[in-house]
Design brief:
Layout (H helix, E strand, L loop, with lengths): L4 E5 L4 H12 L3 E6 L2 H14 L3 E5 L5 H15 L4 E4 L14 H28 L3 E6 L3 H4 L9 H21 L3 E8 L15 H5 L10 H13 L9 E4 L7
Parallel strand pairs: 1-2, 1-4, 2-3, 4-5, 5-6, 6-7
Bound molecules: nicotinamide-adenine-dinucleotide (NAD).
Amino acid sequence: MSGKVAIVTGGARGIGRGCALELARRGFDIALVDMLPAETARTIAEIEAIGRHAMGEEADVAEHARAKAVVAAVVARFGRIDVLVNNAGRGNPSGILEITEEAFDRTIAVNLKSCFNYIQAVAPVMLAGDGGRIVSMSSLNAHTGGVTSAVSKFSYAAAKAGIIGMTRALAKELGPTIAINAVCPGIIETEVGNSLTKSRGPELAKKIVLNRLGTPSDVAQLVAFLATAEPFFITGQAFTIDGFQWEI
Ligand SMILES: NC(=O)c1ccc[n+]([C@@H]2O[C@H](COP(=O)([O-])OP(=O)(O)OC[C@H]3O[C@@H](n4cnc5c(N)ncnc54)[C@H](O)[C@@H]3O)[C@@H](O)[C@H]2O)c1
């Protein structure tokens, strides 16, 4: 895989950091796109310790024009883009009766429009090169709508379900040169953790068939498979990775 390049949005920490490190272990040079400079610098150092090159771009993935500039900077530095992981995203705890229009728009922009922004920016580069793989981070929430106690409610579910529709449609538009898939994690424990799991980890684990919460590394293995497996006959799909959450 040496010489190949991956962009990971939201790659400074959490699941995105896990994906970036796993792709680096598989020989990719990595471009991180994030809004957290200190965490980005830490992850860059970890990638370099693996022996790969890394760069960071401080950007809000919701900004359309910025995505084009970020992709241009990655091409200027590395000369190619083989993989895009649309991972950056953020929950929203508000229900339909209290959410503001601004908060709804922001949830859709950060989780869904961000995928449009980066796919539109990288597609010409991939189509002009050796093709590529795109993996976008949806959520189990897109299928289930979450539960009433979930930290992320309907606006997040709508954005994450939108990613699945976008994935199916763009697989048709961009194939056969670019393969694009979505990943739908269940509850994943990150370094920062989320308020749902902070105190309820052991209780939640009992309701998961594989008896534990997921880790960034669990998700990274699936993302790296979708980004690297050869031969490859998978596109337009959404893969659930949740240890089988049968009751949550
Ligand atoms: N952790 C879970 O249980 C879980 C479950 C299902 C889906 N997901 C999805 O996985 C992805 C990663 O989640 P995580 O749990 O690792 O979260 P996290 O908060 O630990 O990491 C998210 C990263 O994305 C970055 N980010 C957020 N908004 C951004 C923006 N507008 N522009 C640029 N960067 C931005 C953050 O700075 C951070 O580095 C998200 O899309 C999330 O919705 C997480």
